[in-house]
Amino acid sequence: VAKDDGLLALTKKLRRLARLDDADEQTISDLSCSLERVRANRHLIIEGTQPTDCCLLIQGFACRYKMSPSGARQIVSFHVPGDILDLQHLYLACADHYVQTITPAIVAWIPKVQLRNISQQRPAISEALWKDALIDASIFREWVLNVGRRDAKSRIAHMLCEFVVRCQSAGLGSPLEIRLPLTQDQIADATGLTAAHVNRTMQTLLAEGVLTGGGRSYRVKSWRRLRSAAGFHQAYLHADAA
Amino acid sequence: VAKDDGLLALTKKLRRLARLDDADEQTISDLSCSLERVRANRHLIIEGTQPTDCCLLIQGFACRYKMSPSGARQIVSFHVPGDILDLQHLYLACADHYVQTITPAIVAWIPKVQLRNISQQRPAISEALWKDALIDASIFREWVLNVGRRDAKSRIAHMLCEFVVRCQSAGLGSPLEIRLPLTQDQIADATGLTAAHVNRTMQTLLAEGVLTGGGRSYRVKSWRRLRSAAGFHQAYLHADAA
DNA sequence: CGAAACTTTGAGGTGACTCAAGTGACGTGG
DNA sequence: CCACGTCACTTGAGTCACCTCAAAGTTTCG
């Protein structure tokens, strides 16, 4: 049963990216796969190691980050349920970054050899995996822009917009309802700011009626204002890829 | 003859990423391909369009960039001869960024349908294309870190390190000999700084004996010092991917 | 040769940082 | 069920890295 849950999540994910036929779905359900329940703040991928299995996030949230030699941390992406966490290692041996849960989570492990094999046998699956990897890359590019060329307010707003949209398309409820599973430290590491400045900036977003709440639970008050504060356009997420 | 030059460059590129057999190379040489000579500062890919051909950079340099809604430009990668410029559009229809030459260049155009087909027929070619795309993504991640968490000096130094290493592995001569084909404006747009500040920072790199030259032609004086100013570790380039 | 593009320099401003102290929420164990 | 430790949030004062704007050199190229 556990196994099937993992492969079902994978099927759902790939269906959003390409048109799978029965044979494709059958092939997926023949994969091996082991579920694991993981606490918050546990590493799923560690820089310098050579993962043999591919990790799929079933429940909970995770982030991908790198460390600078001076010890500063930079989060390079967030992940929501349904995300494949390391297509990277299907073809590259050595991990060049960390992936860590940020909430309690459930993940599925699939041997990367098997995934590589089915991708060679089934064109539709290959297409879906390609799209997923290319969308990831597109998101990284947007983050370079975000961190490089936006000021603190729009930078944070943009990160929130992306988070909300991705939660939504992962089927996690309406944007206005989302309670951020992120600490201000994590927001700081994702935006290239400091926690203190994130705190002050969140307060101006409150004051401007973009967000409500405060403390450890913010909600989006006005999606329109959030979008416009961010200058957010979701073309880069390629949600229409299928 | 023109056609062959393009496909030869592609073969060389893919050979660096996976072990190709004769059949693989034969398949590549059957592709259609048209060469084009392009001036500096011409667009090869335009945001919002749907490219039908895949662009390969044969000679010269190019950069990939995005615009923020407020009109600021962020370069997200540089490209050297041999680079495939838009694996992106093999599986995603719509361009989410621009690619522009930064020197006079020669590029080859290959129909993306054909490339997609041979990737499905020849596992080794598929593997090479995958690796290329995944390495690109890895570079984007490193840039997020660079722009998000390094100060101006190490940020510029890091960008230079990467540029030098990639030129080298493209067979463009020793690092000490490379003359930067970049304006300070472009360096600024790549690092998330302003041209004025880039200028001042380059001067401190001169003063510290990291670079020599000045004006529009810098050279690396001490590769060791440049590396250490940058905190540069090239694992993320996955040069050993083959 | 002249215009355009790039580099250089200066003076003044500011967004975000640093460091430090204090507050509040939560979970855990006695 | 309260005491305590931890972790995250909040706030303030002072500082600095980098920005803005502007003008003057310099190189490039058509």
Which structural traits does this protein have?
homodimer; 242 residues; alpha+beta; 4-stranded antiparallel sheet; 3-stranded antiparallel sheet; globular; DNA-binding
What's a concise summary of this model?
2 copies of one chain form a homodimer. Chain A is an alpha+beta fold. The first copy, chain A, has 9 helices and 9 strands.
Overall radius of gyration of chain A: 18 Å
Cα end-to-end separation of chain A: 29 Å
User: What strand line-up does the widest sheet of chain A have?
Assistant: 2-6-4-5
Number of helices of chain A: 9
Q: Low-confidence runs of chain A (pLDDT<50, min 5 residues)?
A: none
Largest interface: A-B, 48 and 48 residues
Specify the structural class of chain A: alpha+beta
Tell me the series of helices and strands of chain A, N- to C-terminal. HHEEEEEHEEHHHHHEEH
Percent strand of chain A:
15-25%
Would you report the number of β strands of chain A?
A: 9
Give the averaged pLDDT of chain A, no decimals.
Answer: 94
Shape of chain A: globular
Most strands sheet of chain A: 4 strands, antiparallel
Oligomer classification: homodimer
Binned, the helix content of chain A reads 40-55%
